[in-house]
Design a protein that fits this description.
The protein has 22 helices and 20 strands. It is an alpha/beta fold. The protein has four domains: 171 residues, Beta-Lactamase (2-Layer Sandwich), CATH 3.30.450; 43 residues, no CATH class; 168 residues, Alpha-Beta Plaits; 232 residues, EAL domain (TIM Barrel). The strands form four sheets. Strands 12-13-15-16-17-18-19-20 form an eight-stranded mixed barrel, surrounded by six helices. The protein has a five-stranded mixed beta sheet with strand order 6-7-5-10-11, with helices on both faces.
């Protein structure tokens, strides 16, 4: 970009140099003027004194003879020479003769100023005239008269002004030349090199500034400009290093050094483009392998994140060593990796690579000082095989491989699964379900139904289990479908809070209107793991005025036993509130009897899978009932659907029954009617098929 002339450094520099030269020159000139003024004053006095010395003899004779005519001639000569006026006085002070220069034109302002500078007052030279007999300097000091001369200040001022004019003109030219010379020197030593540096900087590509060092102007290698350029080039070098590091961080995983998501998408897009242009069928196929480690969170939680990070590095090394150089291995985040296989012959080759990856990971048995067992779930998407509806982009292929990986994980892990179209359909349905759940939470579009529980021996109503129901787009959605989605997305926290609020509100209303009836609420793993869950239960009970013993929390055996020590403080606090705790689906997990004795539990619910086998295979059900009796716990049998099952359970000592034989889940109004009937008549509830 061109710099305007009026703003250029050259012009500014020249102006300042000339101004500096003028200031210095005028200061020197002023000193010269003062010295010259003193000199001119001294010269004027000296000239008058010289003239006086020349006419001293004739003037003394004229005074001795009292010759006025001779005296006038002498004085007239002095006035013409260098005096403004002159006079001769006799010894007694009598004026013998006087002559003055005729007045000329009036003095100018400059002449007045020059006169005032040269002569503060009107200078006069007075000289004694000795008697002729005594000579020029009589020893006795006798004199015949005095010669008085007035100095011509106007002539002296005119001479001074002439000198000043010439000096000012010469000084101005001198100062101008000095200023221009200084500007030229500065331009040569500073401005021109700076202009060269500026042009060199302007030529630097801002996209790639590194690799373009500035050259040092000639003669400036060891001065300040050379230092500035050296520092600038050093900064460019540092910038190149930082840019390389930023580029590496932007495209590489900082932990494993593998390609990150951005680089993977770029490589995958490039691979798809090459595959689409390939003429040979084998060169036109590629496979995307989505690798997710199984149970990696357990390693992080038990051994620490340091061991987990080390394990991720080892896994990255194994994955990289198991593929070709032309293939790409990257880390998407967490324990998820992606492998892009180019030029794959067919599905069998992709499967062979996937199995090789699984085998390589399973052989990893030690991480640091810890022994581990590593397995993974791998989803495979092949391009263009196995795809329909057009050619997917990189994101689409990754999504397909992710769906296949989820299927492999759902099947138990440690395996690979190829993508199929129905996986996308399931994923889309899941997304729609998740979106609907979010809308339902905001609109409170759920409802609770209540399944009654009765006393096995008498058939009296002992309580209800609150079950959530949801209608989405006019269709009832099974809890088995939307509860897992809510668990995975964390929406179960909001849903569980709503269920707890609604159940406590209902239990309180029933207790006030009819009589106390306990209501059981299912608690998810995420809810129990929430540090604030016990506090939430306490707040809900207080908000609705619900007696704690009317609330029962059902927690599946698997959830409790997954991390007993972590859940124990929460369970103890809930039990301290007076809330009843029930272990749901008991017998399907891996309960430790030692832990079971320590848990603050009130009820064991026998899983329906064991009730279904009654009365033909009663071993597990009878064992659970006997165990509960020894531990002084109540038992509830789920899924009772036949009279034979009811009879056997009552005979075996089971406390309560629940199932379709007793009643299907009831709407709130029907459940309240059952409560009202029970407390009004105290009757045994009829059993329905």
């Amino acid at each position: 970009m061109a710099i305007p002339v009026l703003r250029s450094l050259t012009l500014k520099q020249a102006i300042h140099a000339v101004l500096a030269a003028f200031v210095i020159g005028l200061t020197i000139t002023a000193a010269e003027f003062a010295w010259t003024a003193s000199r001119e004053r001294a010269m004027a006095l000296a000239q008058v004194k010289d003239v006086v010395a020349l006419v001293e003899g004739p003037a003394a004779s004229a005074a001795w003879l009292i010759d006025a005519e001779l005296a006038g001639q002498i004085l007239q000569g002095m006035v013409r020479a260098n005096a403004a006026w002159a006079e001769i006085r006799l010894g007694d002070g009598t004026l013998l003769a006087r002559r003055e220069r005729p007045p000329g034109q009036p003095a100018t302002l400059l002449e007045h100023a020059a006169t005032a500078l040269l002569f503060i007052d009107r200078p006069v030279v007075t000289h004694d005239l000795p008697t002729p007999a005594a000579g020029p300097r009589a020893a006795d000091g006798s004199r015949i008269g005095q010669l008085v001369v007035g100095i011509d200040t106007r002539r002296a001022a005119a001479g001074f002004l002439a000198y000043v004019s010439a000096a000012l003109l010469a000084g101005t030219l001198r100062n101008l030349l000095i200023g221009l010379a200084m500007a030229a020197v500065f331009h040569r030593l500073l401005t021109r090199p700076l202009l060269q540096i500026g042009r060199a900087v302007a030529r630097i590509d801002p996209e790639k500034p590194y690799g373009q060092p500035l050259s040092v102007p000639r003669g400036h290698a060891d001065d300040e400009l050379g230092f500035v350029i050296a520092r600038f080039n050093h900064t460019l070098t540092l910038l190149e290093r930082e840019h390389d590091e930023l580029r590496r961080l932007a495209t590489r995983c900082p932990l494993t050094g593998l390609a990150n998501r951005a680089l993977l998408l770029d490589r995958l897009g490039h691979a798809i483009e090459l595959a689409s242009r390939a003429k040979e069928p084998d060169a036109g196929r590629l496979a995307v392998l989505y690798v997710d480690l199984d149970r990696f969170k357990r390693i992080n939680d038990s051994l620490g994140h340091g061991v987990g990070d080390l394990m991720l590095c080892r896994v990255a090394e194994r994955l990289g060593a198991s593929v070709r150089r032309c293939d790409t291995v990257g880390r998407l985040g967490g324990d998820e990796f992606l492998v892009v296989l180019e030029r794959v012959a067919d599905r069998d080759e992709a499967a062979m690579v996937a199995q090789r990856l699984l085998d390589s990971l399973s052989s990893l048995s030690e991480v640091g000082d810890h022994r581990v067992h590593v397995t993974a779930s791998i989803g495979i998407a092949v391009h263009p095989l196995g795809t329909t509806g057009g050619t997917p982009d990189g994101t689409g292929l990754m999504r397909m491989a992710d769906s296949a990986m989820q299927a492999a994980k759902a099947a138990g892990g440690d395996r690979f699964v190829f993508y199929t179209r129905d996986m996308t359909d399931r994923a889309e349905n899941r997304l729609r379900l998740e979106s609907g759940l979010r809308e339902a939470i905001a609109a409170r579009a759920f409802e609770l139904v209540y399944q009654p529980k009765i006393e096995a021996a008498s058939g009296k109503l002992t309580g209800f289990e609150a079950l959530i129901r949801w209608r989405h787009e006019g269709t009832a959605v099974s809890p088995a479908d939307f509860i897992p989605v809510a668990e995975d997305t964390g929406l179960i926290i909001e849903i569980g809070r709503w269920v707890l609020e609604e159940a406590c509100r209902t239990a309180t209303r029933w207790a006030l209107d009819h009589g106390p009836v306990p209501v059981a609420v299912n608690v998810s793993a995420r809810q129990l793991a929430d540090p604030g869950f016990a506090r939430l239960v306490e707040q809900v009970l207080q908000r609705h005025g619900t007696p704690p013993h009317l609330l029962e929390l059902e927690i599946t055996e698997t959830v409790i036993m997954k991390d007993v020590r972590h859940h124990l403080p929460t369970l103890n606090r809930l039990r301290g509130l007076g809330v009843r705790i029930a272990i749901d689906d008991f017998g399907t997990g891996y309960s430790s009897l030692a832990y079971l004795r320590q848990l603050p539990v009130d009820v064991l619910k026998i899983d329906r899978s064991f009730v279904n086998d009654l009365p033909h295979a009663p071993d597990i059900a009878s064992t659970v009932i006997a165990l509960a009796q020894r531990l002084l716990l109540s038992t509830v049998a789920e899924g009772v659907e036949t009279a034979e099952q009811r009879h056997w359970l009552a005979e075996a000592g089971c406390d309560c029954l629940q199932g379709f034989l007793i009643s299907h889940p009831l709407a709130a109004e029907a459940a309240e009617a059952m409560v009202m009937t029970t407390f009004a008549r105290d009757e045994v509830l009829p059993m329905t098929a």
